[in-house]
Amino acid sequence: MSESRGDIIGDKNSLAQKHMGLVHSCCKHFTGKGVEYEELFSAGCLGLAKAVERFDESRGLKFSTYAVPVILGEIKRIFRDGGSVRVSRTLKELSMKICRLNTEYEKNNGREMSVTELSQALNVSEDKICEALSAGSSPLSLNADYDDEGNFRIDIPVSDSQEEITERLSLNDAIAELDERDRQIIHLRYFQNKTQSQTADCLAMTQVQISRRERKILALIREKMSV
């Protein structure tokens, strides 16, 4: 019996929900670039929806492999719209405050304030200060080219994250296929940064056992990721 339209829609909704984490993973690579996370996430969700709609299982690709470039494409479109970067109002206001403070401080002290000094003066984190300084500076080219009228197109620099995200997804898949004890070893060693001796204590094993098992696990992960 052929699948009904309701079943097809349900399958697509389920596929989208299952891979919502892909959107967050892609968005994280663009945070601090002058666009609010909500806007990045909205664009990423649109990309996920397009990937779900267009995905062809018969091509032999994993859905995540197909979806990542589609999601990234929609997010990058935000930065390309109109050839300019849309900076959030909060960052614009902070950038203006920094400018005023620096102008006054330079008159009196012969230099601009450091990031730490600005952070203390404005009671804002140093990360936010850096974001505001970047938002207030002249943007660089995302893809150096020219528009239809011959004008140089300027955009914010964003690295191509597709390969990095795809590798991370492959790593997650490989780790998920390990047995429970091996996953614990990898989690303690590489996610909690514990030494082999500390890991051995946590798992009631010896340091030598951890060392031997870790080598085998890493070889197994590399093998799975190369497939």
Report on the architecture of this protein.
The chain has about 230 residues and is an all-alpha fold. About 70% of the residues lie in helices and about 0% in strands. It contains eleven helices and no strands. It has helices at about 5-20, 20-30, 35-55, 65-80, 90-110, 115-120, 125-135, 160-175, 180-190, 195-205, 205-225. The radius of gyration is 24 Å and the shape is flat.
Labels describing this entry:
227 residues, mainly alpha
Short description:
The protein has 227 residues and is mostly helical.
User: Biggest sheet, in brief?
Assistant: none
Following the backbone from N to C, one meets helices and strands in this order, namely HHHHHHHHHHH
**Distance separating the two termini:** 35 Å
Shape: flat
Task: Give the helix/strand layout.
Blueprint: H1 5-18, H2 20-28, H3 37-54, H4 63-80, H5 89-109, H6 115-122, H7 126-136, H8 162-176, H9 180-191, H10 196-203, H11 207-226
